[in-house]
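pls design
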């Protein structure tokens, strides 16, 4: 892996995604779809890696000897001793990326709570008043 590059706004740099994916595989053997879902979860669905980016990356890990992949799809990726050594040699940037992803997810969740919305901007606090009451009040205010 190369030194980390700055990502365009609203994206993860490909190098950052590599570190995150390999670290997640080091925690436990994972399938590609599971890695995508875990990164979505960590970022409160702010970022979702595409399969077109992730799967070639996982294949590159296998070619580099950092992971093994099961023969049958959906492939299960398991970190190798070489992959563990590589992660340990780069522990500081890997941990920094994972902390940033978790911090981002927490900020997004706080922002959504403050707005009273879930990930799709739908009202989540229906105990305050019903949608019918809100629409009725809005309609009266327009008249």
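designed seq:
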């Amino acid at each position: 892996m190369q030194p980390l590059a700055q990502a365009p706004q609203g994206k993860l740099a490909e190098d950052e995604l590599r570190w995150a994916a390999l670290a997640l595989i080091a925690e436990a053997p994972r399938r590609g779809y599971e890695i995508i879902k875990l990164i979505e979860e960590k970022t409160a669905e702010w970022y979702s890696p595409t399969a077109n980016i992730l799967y070639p990356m996982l294949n590159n890990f296998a070619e580099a000897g950092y992971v093994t992949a099961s023969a049958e799809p959906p492939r299960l990726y398991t970190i190798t001793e070489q992959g563990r050594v590589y992660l340990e040699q780069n522990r500081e940037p890997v941990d920094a990326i994972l902390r940033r992803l978790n911090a981002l997810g927490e900020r997004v969740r706080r922002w959504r709570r403050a707005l009273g919305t879930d990930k799709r901007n739908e009202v989540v606090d229906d105990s305050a008043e019903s949608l019918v009451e809100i629409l009725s009040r809005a309609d009266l205010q327009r008249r």
